[in-house]
Design goal:
The chain has 164 residues and is of the alpha/beta class. The protein has one helix and eight strands, in the order αββββββββ. The chain folds into two domains: 1-50; 56-163, Immunoglobulin-like (Sandwich).
């Protein structure tokens, strides 16, 4: 028995509106194609993760906490223009001469471990970072002293913020 035909219904009974011609069909899919192209472009940018060139250098002197870590940043770096942040961390109070610096993004994960950093004659650890290399958020730097035996001992902490 043949299916009855009603106005506005497909002959298969699904209730879908029939597409009259190819032009109408391609016009109805145009917004989706544009969105798909935009998504593909953003996925490529995320996969490539390009570094922006630093337009300025900012020297920042930081005094770490010897009592424990903090979630609030001591300084916010970056902003709309990419900076080369020259961090001078004052560890003159500490007896250690060499350090391991661990950089963790708060509530996310480990970013870097810098081994065998020596403090300079002023008692500073010098670290230079391109602010576009790190995503926006707060980063905890854990300063661990290295003993003459090569043992690692937690010494000081400092938190920095990165803005884009």
């Amino acid at each position: 028995m043949p299916l009855p035909r009603f106005a506005g219904c497909c002959c298969d009974g699904s209730g879908a509106q029939p597409v009259r011609n190819r032009r109408e069909k391609s016009a109805s899919l145009a917004p989706y194609a544009a969105k798909s192209a935009r998504i593909a472009k953003l996925e490529k940018v995320v996969a490539d993760q390009p570094l922006s060139p630093a337009t300025s250098t900012r020297t920042v002197r930081l005094l770490p906490s010897y009592k424990g870590a903090s979630n609030s940043p001591a300084v916010i770096l970056g902003g709309p223009n990419t900076q080369l942040a020259d961090l001078k961390i004052d560890v003159s109070r500490s007896a250690f001469r060499t350090y391991r610096v661990t950089i963790d993004r708060i509530d996310q994960g480990r970013v870097a471990i810098l081994q065998n950093l020596a403090k300079d004659s002023n008692g500073h650890l010098n670290i230079a970072l391109n602010t576009s290399a790190l995503g926006p958020g707060n980063y905890q730097l854990t300063l661990e002293g290295i003993t003459w035996k090569g043992e690692i001992e937690p010494d000081a902490w400092i938190t920095i913020g990165i803005a884009h």
